[in-house]
Amino acid sequence: MNHKYNFTFCLAIVVLMLGLVALASQTPSAAYAGAGLPSRDAPTPLPHDDDKDRDGPPVGAYLELVAPGAPFGAWAVVQWQDSAGGWHDVEGWRGTLSDSSRWWVHPKDFGTGPFRWVVSGGPGGAELESSEPFNLPGQPNQTMQQTILLTR
């Protein structure tokens, strides 16, 4: 009796396996494109680059202001000094200050200056404090951090 069940069980397994093989052989493979697909242009090759770099974004540095206890709504801006001694806001290097502010420095600007930080009560508000003049970081991945203690 057990022999009959073993034979039936083995026969059922063989039939099931043959069915799975037959089903798998009729499923279209994703590797073959059908004739109904539109043609595609060949990708445009990139121009040859001999400068041996990775052509990714430039590795910059950072400028960071720390102002512990800055009042709510305080505003930080980096300014540059012209040859006549006047100070001018650097576009993009300003914003609200919540204990610290950090800006990215492009490699073309490494070592340039003089610059300074100015902290005010808000955009266009009264100046609360400014830093001593400084030059921007001179190397990639360098962070130049300055602390301003608000005394006014």
CATH architecture of the domain at 61-147: Sandwich
H/E element order: HEEEEEEE
Shape summary? elongated
Q: Please state the average pLDDT score.
A: 81
Overall helicity: 10-25%
**Strand arrangement, largest sheet?**
3-2-5-6
- End-to-end separation in angstroms reads 101 Å
Can you walk me through this structure?
By secondary structure, this protein is an alpha+beta fold. The chain has 1 helix and 7 strands; from the N terminus they run H-E-E-E-E-E-E-E. It has a domain at 61-147: Sandwich (Immunoglobulin-like), CATH 2.60.40. The chain has one helix at residues 2-26, and strands at 61-66, 75-81, 87-96, 100-105, 115-120, 127-130, 143-147. The longest helix has 25 residues, at 2-26. It is elongated. The mean pLDDT is 81.
Brief digest:
The protein has a domain at 61-147: Immunoglobulin-like (Sandwich), CATH 2.60.40.
Record the SSE blueprint:
Layout: H1 2-26, E1 61-66, E2 75-81, E3 87-96, E4 100-105, E5 115-120, E6 127-130, E7 143-147
Parallel strand pairs: 1-7
Antiparallel strand pairs: 1-4, 2-3, 2-5, 5-6
Key descriptive features of the protein:
152 residues, alpha+beta, Immunoglobulin-like, three-stranded mixed β-sheet, four-stranded antiparallel β-sheet, 7 strands
